[in-house]
Amino acid sequence: MATLKIGDPVIPFMLPGVDDKEHSLTDYAGAEVLAVIFSCNHCPYVLAWEDRMIQIQADYMDKGVRFVAINSNDVSKYPADSFPNMKRHAAEKDFNFPYLFDESQEIPAAYGATRTPEVFLFDKSRVLQYHGAIDDHYDNPNAVKKQYLRDALDAVLSGKTPTVQETPPVGCTIKWK
Amino acid sequence: MDIQFLYYEDCPSHDEALERLKEVLNEEGVQAEIEIIKVETERQAQELKFIGSPTILIEGQDIVPVPPDSRYYLSCRVYQLEDGRFSPLPSREMIRAGILSNLRMKS
Fold first, then answer.
1. Do A48 and B75 make contact, defined as CB atoms within 8 angstroms?
2. For residue A57, what are the CA distances in angstroms to A41, A61, A163?
3. Partner residue facing A138 (CB), from B75, B79, B88
4. pLDDT tens-digit profile of B43-59?
5. Closest approach of A80 to chain B, Cα-based (Å)
6. Partners of residue A172 in chain B, C-beta under 8 Å
7. What is the model's pTM?
8. How far is A25 from chain B (nearest CA, A)?
9. How much is the ipTM here?
10. Whose CA is closest to A117, among A88, A143, A149, A144?
11. What one-character-per-residue DSSP string does A122-149 give?
12. Which domains does chain A carry?
């Protein structure tokens, strides 16, 4: 389970992105809603969900929602998750969100993240309002019945508490050093 | 038919993959014992030439061709489905193709 609990404030970060810039939490101060998503290149669950992540970001961009993806896997054991491969992957998929690299693994440890993908959704005050999976079907987007992330975004953007605030994240384990 | 089902506990889809394998075997009328192997260490992954979870071997042959430069390690496996999407699970058709290919070789 996450170290961060629903209702907790966001934990700041400053990490390099695939655009070769440093990204900090304050860069997203203007966002209505911020979703920090722990992710990586190689995990099949991420690969299965990625197009949905991109679509959700696109759908909610004009409403002031910003996604930030963070890869923190041990690249010595999982070289597919290296920073150069992150750049390649982000370009191939034309990510519409920053993709950051946490070599130290401090950020997922602080958040209590365990899986990829794993969503931490913060409202305008940067209080955690939803944590967990993107939806209820990792394998088949046509079989999704519960749009956890979309529903949480709709609620938070309306100033309401999401009906479902926590779901078990489903995916590969974060590859710790 | 000699079937091995290899999995890594940290990848959550292995139960569903095993169910899928059993269902397809049943649909094809194939009676087979499935040897279930839990891969727990990197050394075991190397020894078993385990490229990720889940892996289904029929008579020692992977149901999906394995690239020659594949790494052996404790990881979740990526399958590319017939429609081009990526999945942590082999499709029913991949499993079926592996079974039928083996049956054809035997006949």
1. no
2. 18, 6, 21
3. B88
4. 999 999 999 999 999 99
5. 11
6. 10-11, 75-76
7. 0.95
8. 31
9. 0.92
10. A149
11. E-TT-BEEEEE-SSS-SS-GGG----HH
12. 14-18+30-173 (3.40.30.10)
